[in-house]
Amino acid sequence: MQHSIRNECSSGVPKRNYAVGVKQIEKRDSVLTSKQQIDRLLRPGSSYFNLNPFEVLQIDPEATDEELKKRFRALSILVHPDKNQDDPDRAQLAFEAVDKAYKNLLEPEQKKRAVDVIQAGREYVEHNMKEKKKQLKKDGKPQFVEEDDPEMFRQAVYKQTMKLFAELEIKRKEREAKDMHERKRAREEEIETAEKAKREREWQKNFEETRDGRVDSWRSFQAGKGKAKKEKKPRSFLKPPKVKMEQRE
Fold it and tell me: What are phi and psi of 219, to 5 degrees?
């Protein structure tokens, strides 16, 4: 479950009631069996649900490093393939999800990013609550919204947080696809440039290797042409007959 809500929120929920609600949720989730944990981690839509590492490990974002480590050990043992030999393949996938979530939270930047997303989800819900109450006041109605209930507030934050994680993941995949396309195009251009340079080198090499042959052929051609000129007979033209002049007596 999503435990991103702090003990004190601006929605007007009593601190004590909210704290009790969170503790009850944590207690309920902590007693899930191995099979139930595996089912939870591999449920439909888990590829997006599991983007939230705190959701995967079922631990509050404000938990200490020691609490985080303890929770990881307990959950990883629970879903480990060796403990679930009747369903090792699914257990392996669940274990990988737990391991990935834990490693993400060990990275300060990744952890801060997850906390920021959760906080943004909570602030979004609180803002909507204020807007709803403002409208109710304007309409002269009691200023009570369903999110005033701790459980409903938690669910609203959970849904909004999952939506934000999903949107970020979609954008990440789009950037990754774009980067991959650009790298592919750059690689193709690099290959094309290399092939062009190779063709030019081969042409130059062939040109150099056949130069002597071309020169010899030209010299032979020139020599044969000059010889032909020397041996060429002058043209003979038919001379017109001489006209004899008649003598007058």
Answer: -65, -40
